Amino acid sequence: MTSVRAAVAVWLAAGAAPLVAQQDETPAGIADNSFLIEEAFNQERGVVQHISTFARPDGGGAWTYSFTQEWPLHGMRNQLSYTVPVQHDEGDGTGVGDIGLNYRYQLVGLDGGTIYVAPRATLLLPTGNERRGRGAGGVGFQANLPMSILPTPQLALHANAGATWTPSAKSSLGAESATLDANAGGSVIWLVRPSFNFLVELLWYSTESAVAPDTEVRQETWLLNPGVRWAFNFPSGLQIVPGVAYTVGLGDGEGEDGLFLYLSFEHPFARMSP
User: Fold this and answer.
1) Based on the number of CB atoms within 10 Å of its own CB, is 28 exposed (0-12), middle (13-18) or buried (19 or more)?
2) I want to staple 229 with a disulfide (CB 3.0 to 4.6 A). Which of 3, 51, 160, 243 is the partner?
């Protein structure tokens, strides 16, 4: 599994009861913090977000970590970000996977409302060692279409569909072939309070791996991802969102079960004009 596929397979988040560091009657809600499913809310003008995830499957000592940083580009319409995954496997050590450079466009929802759409394009750099299972072995191109719907103040619905094309993927033995992956999924988030959410996500992904020259093998996986997340809000505008969830593999995904931890820091980086 490439680092990006691994990140898709383990992104979750969660929490406990909201502990707010300021005495606001209406604490800031949680948006653009999610798990396996990508939410369609770009970063607001002047606000940056730092996201860390850590996943450890049941049994053994393997784990994956990823760091993502999201920046608005002159406002909410355009967003730039990057993702750096790190993977550890018993016997193969620890190393960086394929780094992703991301661009998202707020197509729908720039002025608020109940429907948000923010298509994303990603360039995957072959920085991971494919011989150790940490990368695809070639440059990859990924597209994802996230949609978010807010039917009520207590409910948020999210849906994703995407694909990843790697024209020159390599196997662990160096065999080269083009691979095409696909993903789809959805989530339901219950906003018990603005700063305390329960959620459940369901993700399907179908991945190809190069096994011989111009020969690929495909695997399909379903993941169920229940979790909880909460927020600490500070007068400075800093919001900290920790979370925890447990991923359950279904069908061919059995054996993917494991704990997932999440931590996000979101804060202003520039003074806004009144």
Assistant:
1) middle
2) 243
